[in-house]
Amino acid sequence: MKMANPIFNMMNKNTRPNMQTMFQQFMGQMKGKNPDEVLNNLVSSGKICQAQLNQAQAQAQQIQSQFDGMKNMFGF
Question: How far apart are the two ends of the chain, measured CA to CA in Å?
């Protein structure tokens, strides 16, 4: 009897939820919450620092501009 390669088995299992599932979970957790308040609480609690928040916001702006470009390309 041949034993299966554990790495191959791990690669074939879909153990990570897909992006759609993760987004739905995130939206469920955020429902009814003020995003600015959530971010301020993360900074004030020390879970993230202001520099991390600034970096994440800068990345979000870059992504948003890319999406805006795509929206224009598709006529949205």
Answer: 57
Contact 27, 20 (CB under 8 A): no
Which string of b and e fits 4-21 if b means at least 16 CB within 10 Å? eeeeeeeeeeeeeeeeee
CB atoms within 10 A of CB 53: 14
Nearest to 39 by CA among 25, 26, 49: 49
**Which residues, including other chains, have CB under 8 Å from residue 30's CB and lie 6 or more apart?**
38
Q: Distance between CA atoms of 23 and 19, rounded to whole angstroms?
A: 6
Amino acid, single-letter form, for residue 36? D
Interval 1-49: pLDDT, tens: 555 666 666 666 655 668 888 999 999 999 999 999 999 999 999 999 9
Separation of alpha carbons 60 and 72, rounded Å = 18
